[in-house]
UniProtKB/TrEMBL annotation:
<dbReference type="InterPro" id="IPR010982">
    <property type="entry name" value="Lambda_DNA-bd_dom_sf"/>
</dbReference>
<dbReference type="Pfam" id="PF13560">
    <property type="entry name" value="HTH_31"/>
</dbReference>
<feature type="domain" description="HTH cro/C1-type">
    <location>
        <begin position="17"/>
        <end position="73"/>
    </location>
</feature>
<protein>
    <submittedName>
        <fullName>Helix-turn-helix transcriptional regulator</fullName>
    </submittedName>
</protein>
<dbReference type="InterPro" id="IPR001387">
    <property type="entry name" value="Cro/C1-type_HTH"/>
</dbReference>
Length: 194
């Protein structure tokens, strides 16, 4: 692979990483903080200026911070994930048909309590996108392993837990172990009951 081809591929890979991050509503600082990296360090990966972006272990680490996989990164680039045997020694390489993403599937639910007032009160209908990670201060719908569904405001997360607001009022925080969360969904619209 020539130097210009490698530079071009690094930029494309970085752009795909940036798109995945934005889809999850995270800033470079928030994504980097999840893996102990500065926003500047994360930005260098998105700009394609770090050659180790081609390493599979680095891709796993970066996409893991976004609750995604290296395969999602390849799909974002417009290719199909390669089988592990077909991967070059330098990392993932994507060529092939373009992935036609399905339109976002949204769901709705009506709040039964005033726990999130004044952000949203009982009777408010929330529209959310299953699987889309929320950004700080955004509403979220969390499916817990015991079958419970919680509606909260996302605050922050690390490798072990997610911190949300709204467990009995917006001034109260709740810590939920990541191992208990089956899915996290970002609220994209609110419809007040009229």
């Amino acid at each position: 692979m020539s130097g210009s081809d490698e530079t071009s591929q690094a930029r494309a890979l970085g752009e795909a990483l940036a798109t995945l991050r934005r889809e999850r509503g995270l800033s470079q600082a928030e994504a980097g903080a999840r893996i102990g990296m500065t926003s500047q360090g994360w930005g260098l990966y998105e700009a394609g200026k770090r050659s180790n972006l081609f390493r599979p272990d680095v891709q796993r680490r970066l996409t893991g911070a976004l609750d995604a996989t290296p395969e999602a990164l390849v799909l974002q680039m417009g290719g199909e994930p390669a089988s592990p045997e077909a991967l070059p020694a330098t990392g993932l390489s994507a060529r092939g048909r373009v992935f036609d993403g399905a339109p976002l599937q949204t769901r709705r639910l009506r709040l039964e309590t005033d726990e999130l007032a004044p952000w949203a009160s009982a009777g408010t209908v929330l529209e959310y996108v299953p699987g889309r990670w929320p950004r700080r201060g955004q509403g979220c719908v969390i499916q817990i392993d015991d079958g419970a569904q919680r509606v909260r405001l996302y605050d922050r997360a690390d490798d072990a837990e997610v911190v949300v607001l709204g467990a009995g009022g917006l001034d109260r925080t709740e810590r939920i172990a990541r191992s208990r969360i089956q899915s996290m969904s970002a609220v994209t619209a609110r419809f007040d009951d009229e």
